[in-house]
C-alpha cells in the first residue's frame, strides 16, 4: 500500500469512498506494471514478419519438418530392406550348407541325351539347371510336374536380365525309356527340355547321387507297370552344386521366386 493511500484512510469514510473509486495504476514497481512493461518491450522488438507475417513463416517450417520426416522414413526403409536381404541370404546359405552335408548331388553322372549324345554332370557347369526324375509311361504325376517345371522356365525366360535355366528330365525307367522314347516325350513340353537316359547302372548311379528312390511295380498282362519314385524338382547352380529342391506342393510361381533369390545370392566358389 502506498503512502498516499494510508493518508486517505486516516481521513474517514469519505476519503475511503473516493479511494475505492480510483483504479490502481500499473506502476513500474508492481507486478502488473512489470507485466505490462515486458509485453510492451516484446511488441516493440517484433517486426512485421513476427506479428502480422506469422502465417508466412509457418509454411516453410512445416515443409522442412515434412522433408526431414520423409528422409528419416526413407532411411529406416532402406535399413529394413538391407536387413531383410541379409537375413534371406543367410537363410539360403544355411539351407545350402545343410543340403551339402546331406551329400545330395555330390556324385557325378554320365548319361545319353534324347539325341544320343553323352552328357555328364560337368557339361552343365556355368548353367542353372532344373532337373526332374520320372518316366515316360507315368500316367499323371510326371506330366504335371514337367508342365510345372516348364512354367518355371518360361516365367524366368520372360525376364531377359536373368540367366537362362536348362530344364532336364532324367528317366528312372531305362528299360522302356530309350533314346527314341525320350525324344518323342520331351518334344511335347519345351524345345530346350533335355531328356537323359542310359543303362540300368548309369541311371541307378545318377538317381542314387540325388537320393532319388524308385522301384518298378509288378507287370500286368500287357507287361505294363508303374514305377514308384521320389517326386521333386532339383535346382543346380552354375557350379554344378545341388542348391534346392521343390515338392509337389510348391507352385510354379513359388519355385520361380525361389530361383530368382538363389540367382541373386549366388557367388561362385570355383576358381
Secondary structure blueprint with pairings:
Blueprint: H1 3-9, H2 13-20, H3 31-45, H4 54-101, E1 110-113, E2 118-120, E3 128-134, H5 141-157, E4 165-171, H6 179-186, E5 194-197, H7 200-209, E6 214-216, E7 227-229, E8 233-236, E9 242-246, H8 252-265
Short overview:
With 271 residues, the chain is an alpha+beta fold. It is built from 8 helices and 9 strands.
Structural class, by secondary structure, is alpha+beta
Strand order of the largest sheet: 2-1-5-4-3-8-9
Radius of gyration equals 42 Å
Helix and strand sequence: HHHHEEEHEHEHEEEEH
What does the overall shape look like? elongated
Task: Characterize the biggest β-sheet.
Answer: 7 strands, mixed
Low-confidence stretches: 2-20, 22-38, 48-56
Q: For the record, give the distance between the C-alpha atoms at the N and C termini, rounded to a whole number.
A: 100 Å
Number of strands: 9
Strand content: 5-15%
Percent helix among the residues? 40-55%
Instruction: Look at the structure and give the mean pLDDT.
Output: 80
What is the number of helical segments per DSSP (H or I, 4+ residues)? 8
